[in-house]
Amino acid sequence: MSRAAILRDSPGDPQLENVSYSLPQGSEVLIRTAAAGICASDIQVCDGRIPTPLPVILGHEATGVIEAVGPDVGRLCPGDRVLVCQSSFCGHCEYCLKGLVSLCRSPGLRTRADGTPRVTAGGGALHTGSGIGAFGEHMLVHERSVLQLPDSVSLEAATMLGCAVTTGMGAVLRTARVPAGATVAVVGAGGIGLSCVQGARIAGASRIIAVDRRADRLTTAASLGATDVLHVMDDDPVETVKELTGGGVEFSFEAVGISSTVEQAFRMLRMGGTCTVIGIVPKTTPIRLKASALLAERRIQGSANGSNKFHLDVPRYLALHEQGRLKLDELIGATVALDALKEAFGAAREGRHTRTIVSFDGP
């Protein structure tokens, strides 16, 4: 028997319950969870902004230690320290063959192809967020969602590589392909936005402007490479960005998930600029842009989990971390135990911390 935080109603908050995990089948891996990050999308699901099947164990950014593997698993073994990422891939669908593995939605990865549940509570089947369900003491996932970790990185710090870093860094380096010397604005300095800042610094951007409502987050952004910070409350930061850059930035990144900030990020662009939207705006919310702005070859695009290829990207990010060029611990604002998850969700709603880590060994 194991424990997990189950969301049964949305809007609502997850509650701790006893759950049972199936034995690993085929290419599945059973992992004892070590740490899991609270992502803004987890809060949006709880608040009813992102529809999802219920009941569900949320959480998709995690690390742990393998306890058991299915008979078809060849590269992973019990005892391995691992990272779990939501960008599982099949390798043979249209998107995988095009190299767009973060868009793979093939059956048999996030759920079992035969429809049987991986985890149950009281005899009833449970869904798992992104096929992971990290807010539980165990995770039962497909092996292609899993990557071995070196002993040189702590499991808590490595958790950031499961979503925040791969999404933010990937948006800069893979989706937008920011070149050296470019000008960049990042709207929203949470875990993903701060990873955008680091990605822009590593890419060699000449100007990196971080925009947020919290002064403490902007202080962190400056320490991670932002050349300018804009502390905004109700003011529109667009004109300030244009003044700082002589007409706007070449690349902007929206990491909040609100229509108004998407519109601001687009308006910050100079002619020929590209706005990359990372934040999850509710599906029915319209985004209003001036059509005339598009005639000057401004572009707006989305980024799915940073267009990542995490089996390639994460080892490279770990190398940057070991060199001191990519900061992970600095992205963590608080650490809590699983029993304090409800309170941690409340703090996340208020934006009190850049990223909160649930540690299964206690804070």
UniProtKB/TrEMBL annotation:
Molecular functions per Gene Ontology: S-(hydroxymethyl)glutathione dehydrogenase [NAD(P)+] activity; zinc ion binding
List GO terms (cellular component aspect): cytosol
Q: Which PROSITE patterns match?
A: ADH_ZINC (PS00059)
Record's keyword annotation contains Acyltransferase: no
Could you tell me the keywords of this UniProt record?
Metal-binding, NAD, Oxidoreductase, Zinc
BP term (GO), one: formaldehyde catabolic process
Q: Which Pfam families match?
A: ADH_N (PF08240), ADH_zinc_N (PF00107)
> Which cofactors does this gene product need?
Zn(2+)
- Domain of life, per lineage: Bacteria
Query: Locate the Enoyl reductase (ER) domain: which residues?
Result: 9-358
Known Gene3D superfamilies for this protein? Medium-chain alcohol dehydrogenases, catalytic domain, NAD(P)-binding Rossmann-like Domain
Q: Which SMART domains match?
A: PKS_ER
* The family this protein is said to belong to: Belongs to the zinc-containing alcohol dehydrogenase family.
**The protein's name:** Zinc-binding dehydrogenase
Instruction: Please tell me the species this chain comes from.
Output: Streptomyces buecherae
Q: Source organism lineage?
A: Bacteria, Bacillati, Actinomycetota, Actinomycetes, Kitasatosporales
